[in-house]
Amino acid sequence: MAISSRAAQAKSSVDVVTTFLARIRALADDPGTLDLTFGNPHEMALPGFTAAVRAQVEPQSVDWFGYKASERTAQEAVAAGLSAELGLPFEPEDIAMTQGAFGAILLALALLTDAADEVVIPVPGWFCYEPMLHAVNLVPVRAALNPVTFDLDLDAIAGAITPHTRIVIVNSPANPTGRVYAKETWHALADVLERASQTHGRRIWLLSDEPYRRIRFDGVDFASPAAVYPWTVIDYSYGKVLLTPGQRLGYLALSPLIPTEEREELRDALMPLGLAIGWGFPDAVMQYSVPALEVLTIDLAELTRKRDRLYGALTDAGLEVTRPEGTFYLWGRAPGGDAVAFCDELAERGVYVMPGTLFDQPQHFRISLTATMDMIEAALPHLLDVIAARRGEAA
Q1: Which of 5, 247, 292, 351 has its C-alpha lying 20 to 30 A from 241's C-alpha?
Q2: How wide is the angle at C-alpha 332 spanned by C-alphas 326 and 333, nearest 5°?
Q3: Helix (H, G, I), strand (E, B), or coil: what is residue 159?
Q4: DSSP letter string over 82-119?
Q5: Distance CA 14, CA 131 (A)
Q6: How far is CA 5 from the centre of its chain?
C-alpha cells in the first residue's frame, strides 16, 4: 500500500463525506438545484466583510505581504472581544491566529497530545474530528450524546475515558443538533474530568469547539467551559458568523484560568508549533481585517425567520425535529427512519439535504439554513410531498 496506515484510516473515516461532497459539486452548474446541504453562502457576502478586506489589500509598508505569525493587532482585537463576550481576562498572548477552526484544532492537538493518545469526541458530532485525529496518529473514542435531547451524556463521557485519554472535545452550539449547553453542564463535566485526571494521574484537557458561538436564537445564553474548567482551550472560526468559509481565519485561545506556569509554557509553544504544523497562520490581509470583522455578523433575524419557517412546516407535517438553539442547521429524524432513502427521493426532485450517515446517524438528516428564503420556499413542497409519501408507506 502506497499510503500510510494513518492516511488510510483518515481516508476511510471521511470517505462518506468526500463522496457526498463530490456528488453535490457535480450539481453546481445546474441553476435549478436546491442545495440545502453544507453551510455555504447562497447570497453575496456582507458589505462590511468586503469593505474590511478591501481596506487592507493596498500595502501600507514594504513588508505588508511578508511572512506573518500571529499579528499583534489581531491578537489584541480577539482578546478584547473574548474578554467582553465570555467575562474572562484574556490577554493577547493567549491567542494564536490560525487558518480557521481546522487550523486551531490541529494546533491544539500538536500542543497537548502525543502519538497514540486518545481523544473523546461527541456522536453525533462534526464529521471531521475523526479523520483529523487519525491523520495525526491519535485515537478517536466516541461518546454518544443523549439520543433524545442530544445533551452531553456525562456517563458516556466518563465511560469513554481511559488512562490514555488526553483531550475531550465538546461543541456548543453543536453541529449538527443546534444544542447550546448550559453552564451547569460544564460544571458537571468539570467534575467528571477532574476525577478522571486524578484517578489516572494525568491531566485531561477540554477542547471547546466554538465556531457557532455567536449564532444563537431566541436570546439563548452562551457559556464556555473555559470559565469553569481551567484546563480548556477554545477554537473559533470567523467563517461561520460571517458566512465566508472559503476565507480561512480563526484562532486558538488559552483559558485565562489555566495555572500560571502551565499557561506560560503553552504561550511559549504557540508560535513555534504554528510554524511546525505548516505555517498555520492566516494570510496577512485576513489578519489585518480582524478588528473590523470582530463586530460583524450575518443577519440573525433573517436566519431565525428561516429556522422558524422550516421548523414549523416540518413539525406540522409530523416530523421529529430538534429546534436549534444555535448554529444554522436543522436536525431531524427522517420519515420511515431511513435518511438515505429520504434524501435520495428528494434528490430526484432536485432538492439536496444531508443524510445523517455523514454523522453516523442513519435515521437523521440535516438541512442548512444558509439557503435563501426563496430556496427554502421552493424546496418545501417537495419536502412535504416526500414526507407524506414516506409516512404513508410506514403506516
Answers
A1: 351
A2: 155
A3: helix
A4: HHHHHSS---GGGEEEESHHHHHHHHHHHHH--TT-EE
A5: 6
A6: 26
Strand-strand pairing, 139-144 and 321-322: unpaired
d(CA 301, CA 309): 12
In angstroms, the CA 319 to CA 41 distance is 27
Decide: helix, strand or coil at residue 210.
Answer: coil
Cβ contacts of 42 within 8 Å, gap of 6 or more: 35, 370, 371, 372, 375
Beta-carbon count within 10 A of 150 CB: 19
3-state secondary structure 308-343: HHHHHHHHHCCCCEECCCECCEEEEECHHHCHHHHH
Average pLDDT over residues 333-352: 96
Please indicate, yes or no, whether the overall pTM of this predicted structure exceeds 0.85.
yes
> Which grid cell sits at 306?
428561516
Rounded to the nearest angstrom, the gap between the alpha carbon of residue 170 and the centroid of all alpha carbons in its chain is 10
Backbone torsions φ then ψ of 202, nearest 5 degrees? -150, 130
Integer Cα distance of 312 and 280 in angstroms: 42
> How many angstroms separate the CA atoms of 312 and 324, rounded?
12
Handedness of CA 81, 82, 84, 90 (dihedral sign): negative
Q: Helices 300-316 and 373-394: crossing angle, nearest 10°? A: 20
How far is CA 380 from each of CA 13, 68, 188, 376, rounded to the nearest angstrom?
32, 47, 40, 6
Model pLDDT, residue 391: 81
The predicted-structure confidence for 99-125, as pLDDT tens digits, reads as follows: 999 999 999 999 999 999 999 999 999
Measured CA distances, 227 to 6, 7, 214, 221 (Å): 35, 36, 17, 14
**Residue 233 φ/ψ, nearest 5 degrees:** -125, 145
For the chain, domains (ranges, CATH) are 5-46+298-394 (3.90.1150.10), 61-293 (3.40.640.10)
